[in-house]
Every structure is written in structure tokens, then in C-alpha cells.
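Submission checklist for the structure archive. All mandatory fields must be present; incomplete records are returned to the submitter.

[x] Identifier: NAD(P)-dependent oxidoreductase
[x] Organism: Sandaracinobacter neustonicus
[x] Residue count: 490
[x] Sequence attached
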Amino acid sequence: MANSRMLSFIHTDQAFPEKRSPEDRAHDFHEISRSFLVAKAEEQASRCSQCGVPFCQVHCPLNNNIPDWLKLAAEGRLREAYELSAATSTMPEICGRICPQDRLCEGSCVIEQSGHGAVTIGSVEKFITDTAWKEGWVEPLQPLADRSRQSVGIIGSGPAGLTAAELLRVRGYEVHVYEREDRAGGLLIYGIPGFKLEKEVVERRTRRLAEGGVQFHFNTEVGSDVSFAELRKRHDGLLIATGVYKPRPLGLAGSELPGVVKALDYLIASNRKGLGDDVPAFESGELNALGRNVVVIGGGDTAMDCVRTAIRQGALNVTCLYRRDRANMPGSQRETLNAEEEGVHFEWLAAPAAFASGPDGRVATVTARRMRLGAPDASGRRQPEPEPGQDFTLPAELVIEALGFDPEDLPVTFEAPDLATTRWGTVKADGARFSTSLPGVFAAGDIVRGASLVVWAVREGRDVAQSMHAWLKTQASTAAAKSAATKEVA
């Protein structure tokens, strides 16, 4: 198929994969969108304008070669498209599912700016790699050299840790991943609901790593099951990729009431239930929305995950409180639309003020306050202010706080007081090399950046693998030189 296939946006409308109806999808945790058919994927890829300055690529944290693999997909050269996509990303089908493309590549698409509707990059990316898995094009992990005399320890198996594990294993190192949970994937497996990312998509990635020689140590918490100092002795290089999991407290009157829960506890319980685990807190109703009035507090992607999970669990009513307006919410607008389609009610410019209990001692109502947007702060974002005399009350037998996450106190947890952190509690790491204050210890992902996007964690996993490889090579050369000098003296 010739180059004339491209630039079809002039006569071909933007199209996304068909979504299942809200009535259908609100009763299960399967992904809501069907995959493109081959012809449709090729058609949508052909809408790319192949512009001289590809802003989609510039605004992708991974700098994916988007125009090039769109062109290959439009020409029906799907295996080549996959190989080009996989050259810069260790998990393109995952990013294709959960990246906020409307804020990144697609939001920067030139034809979006011209009013024709962006190329549906994420859906094509997902299609390409799903096809690669189906056709057997995703090859087993094969080390390109043997550097197994040097070993690397990775603390955490989220996207940053998994990416670094893959790329360091490919370079030939012995790689050990230490994970405190019983499965690999971090928030990919336990935090993100199946309707956005079905768990088999993650599990086939981690199986490939294990089959390629990456050694996983599950149910291993650093600081209790094994010491940080021991890991430093055991490995030639160590990567901290723990992510950030400590929920930010709301601190309102009634926050301690039964029925007021943290978003991550709620999502983990739901995901574990879907994976077939025994989850007592779900079975008891503590972390189950069935038959309840649910209020979710927050406007990010985690809040959207919670409201849509509550719908699927059979909540009586689901309301999202967010203190700013829709235009200023941090979460994906596409996720907000999906939530609205499924029956979630949004109270914009509204913030909780207090929680009150019912006769059984559990939370029963939320008192909320109407807000308005005031003057911008130092970041330029307009700050919400309360509207006097505009309080209102909502029934709520389950309140889910989705206010974001902070890092755990790793110097204390790891008994490593010399591990430098920032004033926000994140690990202080060199911006280019990702090295920490401790020799041979590196850090990447949310534990350095703060709570952020999966695609940024993949990017930093890729970059820290390169940095660790360079450092380990230097260490090996130095050791070899010392050994040679010793032999000469002898």
C-alpha cells in the first residue's frame, strides 16, 4: 500500500473502537471497548498527517515513534508496526489502554488542532500489540550477553520496576525483583480495575519476564522479611521502584467512622475479588458498595476508578464530589464521560465538610459545601473557595477518599537514614542518572516523581536501566583492572 494511503483525515472521520452499552458493561469488570478490526485499524491509522514536527511523539513521555508505526499499520505491515512500537515501550498494549491520550499524544495531534479529530493513537497501539500477542510475534526474552556475574535487585514490581527488570535482563544481568504482594504488577494488577485493564494483559507480561529468567520474590517486604542492608550486600546494583501508596488524609470530622475508607483499600479488595482471592473485608461489606449510597471524594483517575467500580458492585447511588469544576479536574475527560454514561452523578464545585453517623454508628451522611474558583495560586491554578451558606447533605453508607498518594518513609522503613529524600518524602535521585545518595542504589518511578502516570514510570524504568547498565559496566571494568594488577604484583 503506497504513501497515498496517509492523510485520509480529509475524508475519513475519527472513530474509536465500539464501546459496549452502559447497561451491558456496568454489570461486569471486562474492558468496555472492543478491539478494532484490522480494516478499521488500518483506516484510522491512515488518518495520520505525517506532519514534519510530530507533536504526538514530542508529547509522549516515551517519545514513541508514533507517525512511523501508524504508517506501517495503515499499510498493513502490522508486525513491523509492533516491532517499532516495542522498540521504545516495554508495554505498549498497557499504555494503549490506560494512558490519558486525550492529554498526551492525541491531545497534541495536529489534525485535532485543525478540527478534524485526533488520530485514535491509543486504540491503534492497543490493536497492534494485542495482534502481536495473538500471532506469536512477541518473542521470548533473550539476554543479548552474559553478565550474570553481576546481579541487580529491584524493590517493587510496578511499571518502573518491571521495565527496568526486562531491559537489564536483556542486557544479561541476573535480575531479582522483590515484591511485598503475592503477584507482580503493582497498581497495574491491584489498583487499576479490569474494565480499564484486564488482568491477563498484565499477567502475560510478567510471565514473559519470569520465563526469560527474571526471578520474582513475592510476599517479601523490605524492612521486615529482608533488610535493605542485606539486599545491598547481595546485589551489585539496587533499584528502588516502590511507587507511592500512602493515602493522603482528609482530616474532617467523622473521618474515622466505619464506612469511610481509602480508595486504594477499596480498589485492591475489588481487584483481589476479581482475581479469585478470599477477601474478608469485601465479603463482610466493609469494602463492598452493594446496595449502598456511595460518595467518592476526588477528581482524579483513581476517583473515576472508584465510582465506576461502585456501579459494577451494585451501588444504590454513586456521587462524585470534586471541589473544582469539570474543566479543571485532573482526571481523564474520557473516563468522566464513561462514568456519566454508567450512571455516576457528579457534584462539581463541591467539597466535603463533615461526616455524620447513623444509629448503627457507621457513616450515614456527608455534609458538603458549595465552592467557587478564586484567584490563581503560585502554579497558576485557580483555588477553590467556599460559598457561604451553601451547604448541603448527601446520604452515604460508603464514603471513599480518593485524594491521591504520598510516599512512605523509606529511610525509616528500610532502616537507611543516609537515603536522602526530598521535602515531599520522595527519594532524592539524580535527574539524569537516577542515582541516590547511596552508592550503587538507584530510584525511579513514582517514588522519585511522586504519584504520576504509568507511562512516566515506564519511561523512567527505561532510563534507569540504561544508567544502571553504564554504572555496572564501570564497576566490572574497575574490578577487572584491580584483579589484573593484583596478579601482576603476585
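[x] Structure attached
Curator remark: The mean pLDDT is 94. The longest strand covers residues 363-376.
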